[in-house]
């Protein structure tokens, strides 16, 4: 019997492959990705990561397992510190000011992705919400591992790739995979199916996050 996370990964495979092959990712590696698009990505991702952290705390409140609660509360303070630090540095280097952030309109896909995660928690369950969070860790960790062998000639893009290949990020990813497997074990069949759907939908929004930045999506 395969684990629930193996089933999730299997069902989301075409979406993951499309992410790996997306021009945003390809051009990140060649260095051809226009900085305006990376800048756009960072501003939208700031909104995403803020809500992602908030979600960790809200999910933790609804769960009872002490080890799971502890991991999620740590995530609520802003993912792993290396990602947070790198982002602060990027914002400084690209002169993205608080005023610019304030003026940034949240784009449709970023809004939809975040809304989906809240929906999984408040209309679904904390288990489904954990499943919805998992592609965020796992897809980026897979990308980090894949892209690191080539790296990028652009320093900023190289640093971005390195963040997701770090031992800390890999450890957080593995913990999150173990948490979802644990939560899946005592879920009934309908709940299991709903967890898988939540994961696949997040994988869809991950793919479209690249597309959103690549085309500078607007309402
Ligand atoms: C949209 C998105 N997914 C995953 C990550 C990884 O933390 C991120 N920064 N942004």
TrEMBL record:
- Any GO BP: thiamine diphosphate biosynthetic process
Keywords of the record, alphabetical order, are:
Hydrolase, Thiamine biosynthesis
Keyword Hydrolase among UniProt keywords: yes
Q: Name one GO cellular component term.
A: cytosol
Q: SUPFAM superfamilies attached here?
A: Heme oxygenase-like
Q: Which GO terms of the molecular function aspect are on file?
A: thiaminase activity
* Hydrolase listed as a keyword: yes
What's its EC? 3.5.99.2
Show the catalytic activity.
thiamine + H2O = 5-(2-hydroxyethyl)-4-methylthiazole + 4-amino-5-hydroxymethyl-2-methylpyrimidine + H(+); 4-amino-5-aminomethyl-2-methylpyrimidine + H2O = 4-amino-5-hydroxymethyl-2-methylpyrimidine + NH4(+)
Which biological pathway?
Cofactor biosynthesis; thiamine diphosphate biosynthesis
Domain named Thiaminase-2/PQQC is located at 10-215
Q: Which family does it belong to?
A: Belongs to the TenA family.
The record's function comment reads: Catalyzes an amino-pyrimidine hydrolysis reaction at the C5' of the pyrimidine moiety of thiamine compounds, a reaction that is part of a thiamine salvage pathway.
Quaternary organization: Homotetramer.
Q: What is this protein called?
A: Aminopyrimidine aminohydrolase
